Amino acid sequence: MSGIVAIVGRPNVGKSTFFNRLIQRREAIVDSVSGVTRDRHYGKSDWNGRQFSLIDTGGYVIGSDDVFESEIDKQVELAIDEADVIIFMVDVETGITPMDEDVAILLRKVNKPVFLAVNKVDNNKRLENAVEFYALGLGDYFPIASTNGSGSGDLLDAVIEALPEETNVEESELPRFAVVGRPNAGKSSFINSLIGEERYIVTDIAGTTRDSIDTKYNRFGFEFNLVDTAGIRRKSKVKEDLEFYSVMRSVRAIENADVCLLVLDATRGFDGQVQNIFWLAQRNRKGIVILVNKWDLVEKETNTMKTLEQEIRREIEPFTDVPIIFMSVLNKQRIFKAIETAVKVFEDRSKKIKTKLLNDVMLPIMENNPPPAYKGKYVKIKFCTQLPTPQPQFAFFCNLPQYVRDPYKRFIENKLREEFDFKGVPITVYFRKK
Ligand code: GDP
Ligand code: GDP
Question: Mean per-residue pLDDT for 74-86?
């Protein structure tokens, strides 16, 4: 787990400018994969080699100017619940507003690290003005300018310092499955049918809030850890049905998982909210299985299953070879299949293709379909190897890696998928200089 940083603050202080700056940095440099950026409120970033997830909670507030205070309160509560570190952003241009004061009151009570970032400090005059923010009672602040990045280095140093120690959950030898999805999709029912009721009873008696969301199970002859987003976790004061909340809840569970079991309600389909969670898992390079639940409620005509399956595959382009299982928790239909499939995805995600086999298969393919010449230059690919990373990453060595364009990378990714079976497993393809 890499740690979660949330940015809170009222509209227009510059949260998304800051957020985009951090996320783009990473995407531009590291994340050259063909995926599409669909969720601008959540992203991965790193500073000095330390990775973390960044949430722009403010991004969920609609109609940014006339925002209601209750929205801000929810945002802050959400950050308090879900983040390891909170960045509270204010705006030197406007100075302290009543809304800032309200947020400060909430944040002063929190026993998580809170960093006050005074944004839009573009010149020395504004640096002087920033002093007024001491009045918020949050101690020292970081003067920054999100538009040009100044000051953000010191802020990020402090943020990284305050993050919990990085635990490498990827090394656990048991599969770690996260059951994620919208409220009411049937996640708790699914988990109950997998593990029985006893876990809930234990939780009730203890009267505890369970934040340790990682529990070991042995079912159907498979051993796995279940990373839970349903039922067990303490109910927040934040209403469950708020769009952002269910996504936020999923962030940590997804981070903690090897494979995400994305449960959706067949009667509601693969809607925008489900897509958000899907792309979250994909961007985190987690294995994915889509479980279309409540199949018992769907009136079936000849091609119902096929049509819905095709619809879903269209939505998840270009990552289309994800297993999709139609199940009914109610009728205990294909629940075993769901777990079996998740285990298969887990195994594919952790497998290592021998270098010789990889080259024997891929070199002829690339010889027959070389990258198109670019600016009159020919790219010659000499050798490839799978990197020793927890999830599949492949390096292709060639003379001119900078001339390999995205469509060719996608072509290579698809060939790897066809030849070596990575259904439901995000893979990464790098071209490097040799
Ligand atoms: P959000 O609503 O908090 O996400 O705020 P935005 O990121 O949308 O920024 C609001 C406005 O402030 C935009 O017009 C930005 O260009 C501007 N802004 C953001 N950061 C800075 C900065 O460092 N200096 C100045 N002068 N303007 C900024
Ligand atoms: P969660 O919010 O995702 O944990 O969803 P729940 O497990 O609480 O389920 C929401 C509702 O859907 C409950 O009333 C369940 O009984 C119902 N439900 C769950 N799975 C199925 C199913 O396969 N078929 C039908 N008809 N109802 C289901």
Answer: 80
Q: Is 197 exposed, middle or buried (0-12, 13-18, 19+ CB in 10 A)?
A: exposed
Q: Residues with beta carbon inside 6 Å of ligand 2?
A: 181, 183-189, 230-231, 293-294, 296-297, 328-330
Question: Which residue from 179, 180, 184, 242 has its CB within 8 A of the most atoms of ligand 2, so it is best to mutate?
Answer: 184
241 pLDDT band, cuts 50/70/90, is very low
Number of residues in the chain: 434
Cα of first residue to Cα of last residue in the chain, in angstroms, is: 33
Strands 42-47 and 50-56: antiparallel
Higher pLDDT, residue 97 or 54: 97
Ligand 1 site, residue 12, Cβ cutoff 6 A: yes
Specify the pLDDT at position 434: 83
| Ligand 2 mutation target, pool 329, 331, 332, 337, most atoms within 8 A of CB | 329
What's the rounded mean pLDDT across residues 14-32?
63
Identify the residue with better confidence: 204 or 139. Answer: 139
Residue 13 sits at φ, ψ, to 5 deg, of: -80, -15
pTM beyond cutoff 0.90 = no
Q: Is 16 annotated as a binding residue?
A: yes
What is the mean pLDDT of the segment spanning 62-84? Answer: 65
Asked if residues 141 and 134 have their Cβ atoms less than 8 Å apart, the reply is yes
Give dist(CA 400, CA 385) in Å, integer.
Answer: 17
